[in-house]
Structures are given as structure tokens and as C-alpha cells.
Design goal:
Elements (H helix, E strand, L loop, with lengths): L2 H12 L7 H15 L6 H22 L9 H7 L4 H9 L3 H19 L9 H9 L1
Helix pairs in contact: 1-2, 2-3, 2-5, 2-6, 3-4, 3-6, 4-6, 5-6
Length: 134
């Protein structure tokens, strides 16, 4: 699934929250992580693993749990994301890397919360989409 398609789907499913590019940026991020491989068919799980390894495990766990979502900042995400991922996401969404990081910081806690309604990461992107469209 292309990043723009995924972005549009996430934007419509999640309502794009407070950012005009929220769904596009989230879709671009998941698409970029999926293309990098190593996560099988689960870029969301790969993203959450990356965040946990980068010192954001407490925030990530709060997004999966039933309590209040802990915030994350754009600079924290810039440090956590691998290589050129953020630059690629920003290009696809038509914003600067700083803007992409800030938009992700605003959108990611709520998006992960909604994409993992039972506190469990879906096994695949297809399962994630199926859960959201039921």
C-alpha cells in the first residue's frame, strides 16, 4: 500500500486530530518503516519497538494502556527515528522535518491509542485496517 494511500486511510480513520497533515504524516511514517523491513508486515509494531529502544518506552506504554497518554516532543522523535526516516516522511507529506516531527508528536499518542484499542498491537497492517473499518 502506498504511503499516500495509507496516509489518506489513516487520516480518515483517525480524523487527523489537530494537524492538517496528521494522517498523511502518520501514513508516510508507517509506509517508510514498512519499506525499511525488519518488521514483517507490522510497521506499527516496529515503530513502537524503535521508540521503546530509544528511551521512550514509558510514553509508548502509556499509549497502549488505558490511562492517560504521556506526551512526546518533536525533538524526542527526531532522535528516536532511524536514519533518514523523518526526512523521507517530511518530503512525502510536503513539510519540513521539524514540522513532521512536531506533527507526529501531536498525533502519535492518540493514534497509537486508537489503533490499539485493547492495548495490543495488531499482528499486521491489514489487521489494523480491518479493526478500524469494522
Amino acid at each position: 500500500m502506498a504511503g499516500n494511500d495509507l496516509g489518506g486511510l489513516l487520516g480518515s480513520l483517525l480524523g487527523s486530530g489537530g494537524s492538517a497533515h496528521g494522517g498523511d504524516i502518520l501514513g508516510a511514517l508507517l509506509s517508510a518503516l514498512g519499506k525499511q523491513g525488519g518488521n514483517g508486515d507490522n510497521p506499527l509494531g516496529g515503530l513502537l519497538d524503535t521508540l521503546a529502544r530509544s528511551g521512550l518506552a514509558e510514553q509508548k506504554d502509556s499509549w497502549l494502556g488505558t490511562g492517560e497518554n504521556q506526551p512526546v516532543t518533536g525533538p524526542q522523535l527526531q532522535q528516536a527515528l532511524p536514519g533518514d526516516t523523518l526526512r523521507q516522511v517530511a518530503e512525502e507529506a510536503g513539510v519540513s522535518p521539524d514540522q513532521a516531527a512536531d506533527a507526529l508528536a501531536q498525533e502519535l499518542p492518540q493514534a497509537v491509542d486508537r489503533l490499539t484499542p485493547n492495548g495490543e498491537v495488531p499482528a499486521s497492517l491489514e489487521e489494523l485496517i480491518r479493526q478500524q473499518t469494522v
